[in-house]
Write a structure and sequence with these properties.
The complex is a heterodimer of chains A (261) and B (265). With 261 residues, chain A is an all-alpha fold. Chain A folds into 2 domains: 39 residues; 217 residues, MetI-like fold (Orthogonal Bundle). Chain A is 80% helix and 0% strand. Chain B has 265 residues and is α/β, with parallel strands linked by helices. Classes of the chains: A mainly alpha (261), B alpha/beta (265).
Chain lengths: 261, 265
């Protein structure tokens, strides 16, 4: 068995990694090997970041852009969860549905969300509909796949117990498959949130008139590379926060189910 | 009502010609409210017999019926108690027992009354709100028995229900099951590889052999039990010391051992 690394050590190591990365970046930026517009230094990016927190750029402050992005993300992600999880569970329970949907789904999920951009814009516009569709395209597959796996890997003895108690299908799905799949569904939601957030920004580079992605495009147009990088940092931080929140939710749910002590 | 019948039952896992012959020409009739135990070595197909009555497996040839109706699918008229309990981990004790009654569309008031009564009977009252993982193995199996019994099934199917319990808990559960079965008799099919358990609990004991699974002998215990009045003893060890008990136990042991010897020869 692998030895557990103590918390203080893993935190220190994490900081060490981050610090060396920033050091390397800074060194390269001030070395004059590359023009500063090609590679702004971390300090310049930090400056730009704090400025953007208060000053409007491309119609809004950075928090304003983030709020616009996050709203789109939330809609797309929720839509993916609300449709994907029941679909996955149903596919896990009804063989026929599985046979009908699986081949189609397996082909569609390899199409990168960004590939939907032209159609998203045509069908749902560049306001809120288009971006939501693109986030949906990114977030949907993990929701379906993990709910499906969760339903497929339910302890068969529990299914037998439910059957001998005369449990109708709708009740088996809601009261046996769903709770049993919770760990798998939650980890699916984590992947789904990550992919959704990634595709959102991609989508905003092309459609949308507000949002972090849009801000970055405007930064590029104004040759403000620091703005682009500040956007990248913001995306990374929000993604990290999102993942941590879902990780926490995962732990709380596990604990409540008594699977963790 | 609760008559279980195996008529010329064969079971082959896999293709008929080349698959594994699990059961060979099983014929057995279990009368209404009779307690029958099947004993045999592991892999003899005794659990397969139970699973066919439950509706989890179908017979390759022959018919398995309950109350004259051939079995097609699982149902609450044939409640099962599993060796590994198979309680729903995310449901409380109360909700585990409640599910079957809800499926039968019993009214809320009726459900509450029936669950209260069974919790009382199984000494589970103070655990109604607990979750399975908070209970010991013995307690969990009580819940599983309560979940089956509360449905008032025609037939109760018990698949090595005490096999996962420690020896002390096992004895307590055996005594409780006798108490329960006398108070509220059901047709019971009980699978075990513990010979004493079979003799102590059952009216008749069917001895099975392995590869292919056959019923070698069916032994009447009830006649001797009633003649010697075993039920007047509270404790299992007092019954197990009786000459009549020892005689039956030895007979079954011999029968099983002959089988082993024959296989090794």
């Amino acid at each position: 068995m692998q030895k557990q690394i103590p918390l203080w050590q893993s935190v220190t190591l994490g900081f060490l990694g981050l610090a060396s990365f920033l050091g390397l970046w800074h060194g390269l930026a001030i070395s004059n090997l590359v023009p500063s517009v090609f590679l702004p230094s971390p300090l310049e990016v930090y400056d730009r970041f704090t400025t953007l927190l208060e000053r409007r750029f491309a119609g809004a402050t950075l928090p304003g852009h983030l709020a616009a992005s996050f709203q789109r993300f939330a809609y797309g992600f929720l839509l993916a969860a609300v449709i994907g999880i029941p679909l996955g569970l149903l596919m896990g329970w009804y063989q026929i549905l599985d046979e009908i949907v699986s081949p189609l789904f397996d082909a569609l999920r390899f199409i990168a969300p960004i590939a939907w951009v032209p159609f998203a814009a045509l069908w749902f516009g560049t306001g809120i509909g288009g971006p939501i569709m693109i986030i949906f395209a990114g977030a949907f597959p993990p929701c379906v796949i993990n709910a499906y796996r969760g339903a497929k890997f339910v302890d068969p003895r529990l299914i037998e117990a439910a059957n001998m108690l005369g449990t109708p299908s709708h009740r088996v799905i809601r009261e046996i498959l769903l709770p049993s799949s919770v760990p798998s569904i939650i980890s699916g939601l984590r992947v789904s949130a990550g992919l959704g957030w990634q595709s959102l920004v991609g989508a905003e580079l092309i459609v949308a008139s507000a949002g972090v992605g849009y801000m970055m495009v405007q930064g590029q147009a104004n040759v403000s590379t620091t703005t682009v990088m500040a956007g990248m940092v913001a995306i990374g931080l929000v993604g990290l926060a999102l993942d941590s929140a879902l990780r926490l939710a995962e732990r709380i749910i596990q604990r409540r189910r008594g699977l963790d002590n | 009502m609760g008559v279980i019948e195996f008529k010329n039952v064969n079971k082959v896992f896999g293709p008929r010609a080349t698959g594994f012959r699990a059961l060979d020409d099983i014929n057995l009739e279990i009368r209404d409210k009779e307690f029958v135990a099947i004993v045999g070595p592991s892999g003899c197909g005794k659990t397969t017999c139970l699973r066919m009555v439950a509706g989890f497996e179908d017979a390759t040839d022959g018919v398995v019926s309950v109350g004259g109706t051939p079995i097609k699918r699982p149902g609450p008229d044939r409640a099962v108690v599993f060796q590994q309990f198979a309680l729903f981990p995310w449901k409380s004790v109360y909700d585990n027992i409640d599910l079957g009654l809800r499926n039968l569309n019993v009214s809320r008031a009726d459900r509450e009354a029936r669950i209260d009564a069974i919790l009382d009977l199984m000494n589970l009252k103070q655990y109604a709100k607990h979750f399975p993982h908070q209970l010991s193995g013995g307690m969990q199996q009580r819940v599983a028995i309560a979940r089956a019994y509360v449905l008032d099934p025609d037939v109760l199917l018990m698949d090595e229900p005490f096999g996962a319990l420690d020896a002390q808990t096992r004895v307590v559960m055996q005594e409780e099951l006798v108490r329960l079965a006398r108070k509220n008799p059901r047709t019971v099919l009980f699978i075990t590889h513990a010979v004493e358990e079979a003799v102590y609990l059952a009216d008749r004991v069917a001895i099975m052999t392995r590869a292919p699974g056959r019923i070698k002998e069916v032994l009447d215990v009830a006649t001797i039990r009633n003649a010697e009045n075993w039920d007047s003893y509270d404790k299992i060890e007092d019954v197990m010391d009786l000459e009549s008990f020892v005689h039956l136990r030895t007979h079954i042991w011999r029968s099983l051992r002959e089988e082993k010897a024959a296989q090794h020869a």
